[in-house]
# Entry
Amino acid sequence: MTLRALAPRFALCLALAAWVAGGAVARGGEEGETPTKAGFAYVPPGTFWMGSADADPGAEDWEKPRRPVTLSRPFFIAAREVTQGEWANAMGEYRGQARGEDYPAEGISWDDAQAFLERLNGMEGNGTYRLPTEAEWERAARAGTDSVYFCGDDSRALGRYAWLKDNAGGVSHPVGLKEPNPWGLYDVLGNVWEWTADYFGDFYPDNAETDPKGPESGWGRVTRGGSWLNDARFLRSAARAGTGQGERRDGVGLRLVFEP
# Structure
């Protein structure tokens, strides 16, 4: 099947997920009004604390030092993880342990994600879809909070918001069933790890940064958010892992950023 033939099917799938085929963005009519894109959350520019504090008992060395990071531009990030239906309509195959249109695509390598983005951008034509940088991901996941999880410091609160080892039953679940974070992102913690654009580095720079994009090279790429396979400490907002960009692992999927 050609990409031209696939495009209407993919647009339909995006509509079911509350995306808008063609990437249309509604601009604010009044000065200062926030622009919108259906199916995506708007993340404003600003400064936040990125990484783990020394006082966090679950923190790893590669999540430190905690330092202020500024994102100078707003961006749109998908409210939900890419589903198997969306993946299949673009790539011609389903990817996931539990099969279903609304389950997250998983077993996705970073290289697979790049191929998906290339096809999706070829279909859409208005704006650009890409992976978030690691800093963009953490700002969106924290959603203005400064706690261990966006829902506070107590992992017992995660059950309302996330699928993890304690409640997932050994499998992923359809996207969007749990409550979202304060900025409208579903499953940003748990369900599946999410690829970012950045190479993995063993430590963060020991200084404030603006619009960081990670190391210039590395052995793998950063995944964020934890999955249905993991316990709560892997779902902390600052938790990160490095994964070889050609590796396909259960519990690893993706979430998109859109640039108009």
